[in-house]
Specification:
Elements (H helix, E strand, L loop, with lengths): L1 H25 L14 H17 L1 H17 L5 H12 L1 H34 L1 H13 L4 H10 L5 H7 L7 H11 L1 H16 L3 H4 L2 H28 L4 H8 L6
Helix pairs in contact: 1-3, 1-5, 2-3, 2-4, 3-5, 4-5, 4-10, 5-8, 5-9, 5-10, 7-9, 7-12, 10-12
């Protein structure tokens, strides 16, 4: 058990060093501020402004660095990918950003799945026994339509995405179904984040927020994001065994009083 933990720590340290070296090499003499992951919208806006000119002159380097940072966060279940989705919209535009983030989310989540399977199974079961047992029971109850159950979990999360990524190999979820469920199930969420970044990058004043163009974009974004969820919700009522209200609090780390 502890040997696996040591292996994971070594791998994490190596990935961190590789990402730092890559960012230092690609951004040397270019960025006006040190590159680091944004922790809020203000830092995100500053980072987007600093990277925008660099991205225009060195698109390949900016794309490589963005992909490496995104995969790093996804692979090691580090929070904050939503801010990177917004940054993608600001840097690469709404549609390129959406395709990029959807692909990176799927690949990064699959890396997390593989890392958990190789190093983390025992730790996940040890620290989250109740959640794993409950999720295992729901997966087995819906094994005949597993893919749609996984889509439901992504669109209407009974459990955080990071925990589902870590526990999936324990639940004997095939990696192919896992990958496709992330690719399809998180597209609406990625769409909202990327479109938000694209819109924010074009706003130069408070008046622009209330322009008809911006309001129509926000309305279209909300409608497009609701369609997949509505379809899966209707399907789940007929074919899936959920008991959402009974189990959602426990899977999200909350217990009813």
């Amino acid at each position: 058990m502890w040997r696996r933990l040591a292996g994971l720590v070594v791998l994490f340290a190596a990935a961190t060093a590789a990402l730092w070296l890559l960012s230092a090499r690609l951004s040397a003499g270019q960025a006006r501020r040190p590159l680091r992951f944004p922790s809020d919208l203000e830092e995100l806006r500053e980072l987007a402004e600093a990277l925008r000119d660099y991205e225009r002159q060195h698109r390949g380097a900016a794309l490589t660095l963005f992909c490496a940072a995104y995969l790093y966060k996804q692979s090691f279940a580090i929070p904050g990918s939503s801010l990177l989705n917004v940054l993608a919209g600001a840097l690469f535009g709404p549609w390129t950003g959406l395709v990029l983030c959807s692909a990176l989310t799927s690949v990064g989540a699959t890396f997390c799945y593989l890392l958990s399977g190789a190093f983390g199974k025992q730790f996940v079961v040890y620290y989250f026994p109740d959640k794993v047992a409950l999720l295992q029971r729901k997966v087995e109850e819906n094994r005949s339509c597993l893919f749609f159950f996984l889509l439901f979990l992504r669109l209407f999360p009974m459990t955080p995405n990071w925990f589902l990524n870590l526990s999936a190999p324990i639940l004997n979820i095939p990696v192919s179904q896992f990958f496709l469920s992330v690719l399809i199930g998180l597209t609406p969420y990625n769409f909202i984040c990327v479109q938000t970044g694209a819109i924010l990058s074009q706003i130069t004043s408070l008046d622009a927020i209330f322009s008809w163009d911006t309001l129509l974009k926000l309305l279209a974004m909300a409608v497009a994001a609701l369609i997949p969820g509505t379809l899966i919700k209707k399907y789940s009522k007929k074919h899936l065994k959920l008991d959402e209200d009974k189990h959602a609090q426990l899977l999200n780390g909350k217990k009813s009083l």
